[in-house]
Amino acid sequence: MKAPLLDKTIEIIYKELSGIIAVNNYSEYSAKKIEVDKVTQTVFRTYNGEKLSRLVLEQYTINSKAYGVVLTIYPQPEYGIPIFTFQLGGQIPERVIFVLDMIPVINSDAISPVSSLYNKYASEMKNLGTSQEWMNKIASRNALVCQYKPLEPDKILSSLTDYLQLWREKYYLPAEPITVEDDKKAAIETILMFKKTLQANDAGIDIYRKKFGEAMVAALENAAFGAYPSLEISVENENLPAIPLEISAENDSPVKWTDEAEQYLEEAPKFVRSKIRTNAEKKAMELGIKRITREFVENLRK
User: Fold this and answer.
1) CATH code for the structural domain at 253-302
2) Pairing between strand 291-292 and 256-257?
3) pLDDT tens across 237-247, in order?
4) CATH architecture of 4-203
5) Residue 248: what pLDDT?
6) What predicted TM-score, i.e. pTM, was given to this entire model?
7) Distance between CA atoms of 302 and 290, rounded to whole angstroms?
8) Any alpha helices (H) in the chain, and if so which ranges?
């Protein structure tokens, strides 16, 4: 499923995000279609982190011809950390799809330290640039983008490493909760706008719909866009099974936690609390339970 360059890409992602996510603690969504000598497959892995709403890592193959990796890191809005987005795919290295960007969720001035990296790689890389209007709407001024043109593999890997290191050291690690309510609202609006634009223009969704069907696409979209602040993912055919949305914001949850359950959750390591909460609320909704107790959560973790 993966070309050698993509293997190296995955290694860099896990290395640079060490300590932010637990590599062996994830939820996985996958689909595969085999047609004689053609394989189309996608594997979504979703991770949680202390200051993250969700990290989404997708690896895909389209008709055994195009391969790719997509990484999107959504911050919890109250921290104001930039969205991190990366895509590498296509028919590498001749026709490369490459996107690397950090999108500020509060104000564009906060992302100025990235400018030096952008200037470095924009001058070193050939074939950069996009004519897609929708991408320009959500991209920052420091976005590195290549559309179906040759690109040097070593520049791809080094730029990904540098951007991830800067995102981690400059923005993620020192981030503190936002105290200005208007800033929190701005962050939520920016994240939702990014998700809506991406969902509406993602060519992969149409491919997956044809290959895997509507219900599977709804599940994959939920993996990609379901974390708070989440998009409403629906299945058009009412006869297909509903795919429940993940509800990550405590105040928006249709189920309530007892004080004992909340105390038990606080005893878990920070990086797994969000996942425990999500899994417990999903299971409670499936069973029609309106109140989550400590015993309920303990049984889920056994």
Assistant:
1) 1.10.8.550
2) parallel
3) 434 333 333 33
4) 3-Layer(aba) Sandwich (3.40)
5) 34
6) 0.76
7) 21
8) 4-16, 115-124, 133-138, 153-166, 181-201, 203-212, 214-225, 259-266, 270-287, 294-301
